[in-house]
């Protein structure tokens, strides 16, 4: 990681001073902090990163951040191509969009193949795409299990397949990083309507730990970021049902976490500066579940 003073970055400069106050300078591009002293530049310049679910929410905020830091991105999306294109249009470093429905096994492997064919190498994969589908046990068993399978297909099976493909690829390179989006739900438990979601994230967490233990000597690291409630489309339905006040009462901070709050830590994970935390799950949940 490089440290630099006096530089301004197009999308985001992380200041070591007053990080929460920097929130006030956020605009639609993310945070633009005007502090120029003690600025920290994340070293992802020129790195090729496949980011799934980059078209919305946490993935979109991270994509904008990574591109601002000079990474070359494979911007994956499913339905929101316009959003993915708008991210790529921000830069001229060869970042490109890739469409795939991650509930479809063939589309998952085609996504990986297409990205490698286009970029020749992938340095890091951020496996972020996910669904948060309610399936209360008060409903019918058939519907309940359909939602279970749909959740597992996107949140766990696709992640497992991309992990296998990634390990094969990283072994040929002698290094690589797998960054997974887990959840506070793994440690705190979820409400009864999201049993499949919690189980899928538990699977991811165990997967990351096992990859970290098994392939460290191949230069492969794996870690998990476990967010708490973060204000994205995924969370909007929950906010509509339960009200923002309920969520604010759960957290230690005064404001709900925004997608942009997660991007710097995820970028740090991508940079290699956290490689010795391989296997770890890092919580970022506004103090709502401290373990
Ligand atoms: N938001 C939270 O409170 C929260 C908390 C803990 C963990 N997380 C985790 O953080 C990650 C991102 O969540 P988010 O809140 O940013 O979600 P989001 O705003 O709903 O965005 C989801 C992303 O996943 C993609 N996606 C959904 N279904 C897909 C499918 N079948 N195939 C391919 N891509 C698909 C979407 O693509 P399109 O829009 O292009 O269709 C979109 O880019 C998820 O893994 C989630 O579980 C979120």
Brief description of this entry?
The chain is α/β, with parallel strands linked by helices and 291 residues long. The chain is 44% helix and 15% strand.
Can you put this structure into words, describing what you see?
With 291 residues, the protein is of the alpha/beta class. Helix 2 crosses helix 10 (259-271), helix 4 (105-119) runs parallel beside helix 5 and helix 5 (141-173) runs parallel beside helix 7 (195-215). The strands form 3 sheets. The protein has a 7-stranded parallel beta sheet with strand order 7-6-5-8-9-10-11, with helices on both faces. The protein folds into 2 domains: 1-41, no CATH class; 42-284, NAD(P)-binding Rossmann-like Domain (Rossmann fold). The two termini are 29 Å apart. It is globular. It is built from 10 helices and 11 strands. NADP nicotinamide-adenine-dinucleotide phosphate (NAP) is lined by residues 53, 55-59, 77-80, 100-103, 128-132, 154, 181, 183, 227, 229-230, 232-235.
């Amino acid at each position: 990681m490089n440290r630099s003073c006096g530089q301004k970055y197009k999308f985001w400069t992380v200041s070591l001073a007053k990080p929460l106050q920097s929130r006030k300078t956020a605009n639609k591009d993310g945070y633009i902090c005007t502090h120029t002293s003690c600025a920290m530049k994340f070293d992802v310049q020129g790195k090729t990163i496949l980011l799934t679910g980059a078209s919305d929410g946490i993935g979109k905020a991270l994509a904008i951040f990574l591109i601002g830091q000079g990474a070359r991105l494979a911007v994956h999306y499913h339905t929101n191509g316009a959003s993915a294109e708008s991210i790529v249009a921000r830069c001229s470093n060869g970042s490109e969009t890739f469409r795939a429905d991650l509930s479809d096994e063939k589309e998952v492997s085609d996504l990986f193949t297409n990205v490698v064919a286009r970029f020749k190498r992938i340095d890091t994969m951020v496996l972020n795409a996910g669904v948060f589908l309610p399936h209360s046990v008060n409903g019918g068993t058939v519907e309940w299990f359909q939602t279970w399978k749909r959740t597992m297909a996107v949140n766990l099976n696709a992640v497992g397949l991309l992990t296998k493909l990634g390990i094969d690829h990283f072994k040929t390179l002698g290094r690589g990083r797998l960054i997974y989006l887990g959840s506070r739900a793994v440690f705190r438990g979820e409400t009864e309507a999201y049993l499949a979601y919690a189980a899928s994230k538990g699977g991811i967490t165990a997967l990351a730990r096992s990859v970290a233990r098994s392939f460290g000597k191949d230069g492969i690291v794996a870690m998990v970021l476990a967010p708490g409630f973060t204000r994205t489309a995924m969370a909007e339905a929950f906010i509509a049902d339960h009200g923002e006040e309920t969520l604010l009462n759960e957290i230690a901070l005064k404001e709900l976490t925004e997608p942009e709050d997660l991007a710097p830590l995820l970028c740090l994970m991508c940079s290699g500066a956290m490689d010795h935390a391989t296997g770890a799950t890092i919580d970022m949940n506004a103090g709502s579940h401290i373990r």
